[in-house]
Design a protein that fits this description.
The chain is built from two helices and no strands. With 60 residues, it is mainly α. The protein has a domain of 36 residues.
C-alpha cells in the first residue's frame, strides 16, 4: 500500500513539473539567466569595491 502512495506522489510532482515547464517560454528562461549573470557580476564588483574602500579607511 505504501508503494502505491509513493507512486502517486511521484506522479503528482512529475505532472506539476511538466505543466510548469510547458507554461514557461524559453525566452523568459534565457532572459532570467542573463539577468542573473549580470546581477552576479555587479554584486561581485561592488563587494570588491567596498572591500577596497574598507581597507583604505582601516589604514587611516
Amino acid at each position: 500500500m505504501e508503494q502505491i502512495h509513493q507512486d502517486g506522489k511521484a506522479g503528482f510532482v512529475g505532472g506539476c513539473f511538466v505543466s510548469i515547464i510547458k507554461s514557461v517560454a524559453i525566452d523568459n528562461v534565457i532572459e532570467t539567466i542573463v539577468y542573473a549573470a549580470i546581477g552576479t557580476v555587479v554584486s561581485f564588483i561592488i563587494s570588491m569595491l567596498l572591500r577596497y574602500l574598507a581597507s583604505l579607511f582601516k589604514k587611516r
